[in-house]
Structure formats: C-alpha cells, structure tokens
C-alpha cells in the first residue's frame, strides 16, 4: 500500500481528537495566510511612508563616491540616519534597481522575522508541533510592528533576529559571539544597544569586546570610503538628539505635540525613570539566577524604557519586545494579569482609533495609545515586583526570593511542551486517525493547551 512522504502526511486532513489539536488545526491556516498577505500583498503594495527609499538612495550615492548625508531635516519625510558603519553594511542593496532591491529587502526581513519566531519558540522550549507555534506566528504577523516593518520596508526584522540570536548566545555563555551579533546590529542601528546592560549585570564582560569592536572596525573601514562621514556626527546626531513632535510616541514627543509644559514632561520622565530603576534593581537582586525569566524580563523593561523616555520612540520599535511578551508562559511572569495586556494592546495592535464622528477624541486615542501602553507596561512590572517584594518582606522570606510558595505549583505553560529531540511513541496499531472510538495517542504525542 502506498504511503505518502512524511512531509505530505502532515498536510493530510485529519479529525482532531484533542482540544490542542482542534486549536492547532484552526490556527495554522490563519497564521500561514496572514504571513502570505503581509509579505506578498501589503508589503509589496507599500504605503506613502517609505523608509527604504532614503536607504537605497544613500547606498547608491555611497557606492558612487558621492555625499550621503544630504537630507533636509526641516521636512517630515523619512531621512537617512544610519552611521557610516551602517552605510557600509547596507550599501549592497543599491547594486540592483530599486523595485527588485525593495522586494528582496522585504523578503530578507520576512525571513529574519520567521527565523526569529522559531528561535523564540525554542527559547521557551516549544516546538513546531505545539499550540504556541501557530499562535505566536499569527500574533506576530497581525501586529502593527511587523506589518509596518514590512510595509515601510525597514531593517527592524533583522534587528529582531539579532536580538534573539544575542539572547540565545548570552544564555549559552558564548559571550564573544553574542557581542558580535549585537555589535553588528548596533553598527547599523543602535536600537539594541541597551542590551549591553543585560550582559554587564550578568558579569559577561567579554560581550563588550566584540559588541564595541565590530561597529568600531566597520566605522574605520567605512570612513575613508565615504565622502562625508563626519556629517553624521555634526548634523545627524544633533538632529537625533532633538525631540520632534511628529511620528514620535515618546513622552517628550507627545508632550511637545500637545503643548505640555517642559517642566511637566521632565517630571514625567524622572518619575518613569525611577519606576524603571526600581524594577531593574528588584529583578537583578532577586531574579538574576533565573536565567530565562531574568534576561527576557530585564531586557524587556530596559527596551521599553528606551522607547518611552529618550527623544524618539516609534511604535514599530515594539517588535523588540516579543521575547519579553513571550515570557508570559513562565509561571513567575510579571505579565499574567489583564492590565499588562491592555498595555500591550496599546502598542501592538494594528487597529486605528481615528474617528470621523469624534475627531479630537479619536485623534487623542490614536496618538497617545502607544505612549500610554509603554508607560502602563512599565508601571505593571513595577507594581507586580513591588507587591511580591512587600509580601515577601512581611512574611520574612526575602532571603528565599520574591516568588510566593503557591507559585511553585502554579501552571507553567511550558510544562509538557514539545521536545523535538524526544522520541515519540507510536500510536497503537488498532487506532485509526478518523475512528472516534479509537484509543487516544500516548501522552508523548499530545500537546497541552496553553494555560
């Protein structure tokens, strides 16, 4: 009797026997079709905002030995803001004509996001056969941050992959490689630079050798090849240090847009910086030996603060928070409450809140939801950790950590997660996949639902 290859047998229609199978069968088509729509329809269609055009033009000028930093910063159009090291790395995109180059860059970012998705699953010990796989894929490609990264065609997908590689290598104590990956990302765009603090508080100082060495080496190579590299430091950096009142969801950006007094903006920034500092200290003091929880939560708080408090924070930066959001599957996660997910809704959803009927209200909801989302997330982390600290101090058990006793038996969504390296027992011979009264599969073949 002919049997189809294993790959095709996985695609054969089957009747689900467990709740987990039902959910997986429902989610996979939605996830795959959403990915295809985002990459081949929305991204190829593009939008009025085009982050790729200035990158392509600058790369073309660099390859032809002409000045790169020629943007008019008085306009609100996207500008070329990469340092000379980033110009060197990204210059090959201009070897071919613009439209094909843009399509290939979309494909590169889509592939980077898919690889980051797989690494994120493996980071939390989930396999492709788990419910988490289609659920996470669907959530990522339904988010504003992934959609606009592809549609605007910027480099954030590659930065997310760099972040996941860095975390994996950091946890594996492969410090020089972790630093090299982080350094390469910093050479292009310094979004992930705050993660150096994660390595520092863990005492992994070798990370700094390559994290600093790679961008310095690339800058040294790019400098004599560039026509005007000094303008990045004399013109671009001053522009980046200014707080602009458009396309800016930071506290300063929205405060400037709504005419909030500078002293009040400063107070808000100082208060939120205090909230962040206390949260980071509690994480370091009581959780630094819980590697996965500590690295994902500490880095998430740090990156969120770096979006909210400095001069510029844009909504699609939130892509770098995926490892933090995925930590919800851990039993001691600080995200297992509804205010955290109300905050995440604010900066992850692709929904638009502009209203034709209530224009001022809709505009405020649309422009402020990201700022409030980032801020609320930081407050939630502060409150959860603070509550655990006060409860532990009252009970006299601070020396044992902050987690209450009941948390040791709390459900961890990774319990029973698929391990692709574990042999799977064969189903009983009498069982048939479409037989409603057949014996259930052995426990090794079943996936638990996410709790």
Automatic annotation (TrEMBL):
This is Alpha-(1->3)-arabinofuranosyltransferase. It is found in: Cell membrane. Belongs to the glycosyltransferase 87 family. Residues 412-422 have a biased composition (Basic and acidic residues). The chain crosses the membrane at residues 103-120, 126-143, 150-171, 177-200, 207-225, 263-284, 291-309, 367-390. Residues 411-451 are annotated as: Disordered. The keyword Kinase does not apply. It is a multi-pass membrane protein. One of its GO terms (cellular component) is plasma membrane. The lineage of its organism: Bacteria, Bacillati, Actinomycetota, Actinomycetes, Mycobacteriales. It holds the Pfam family GT87.
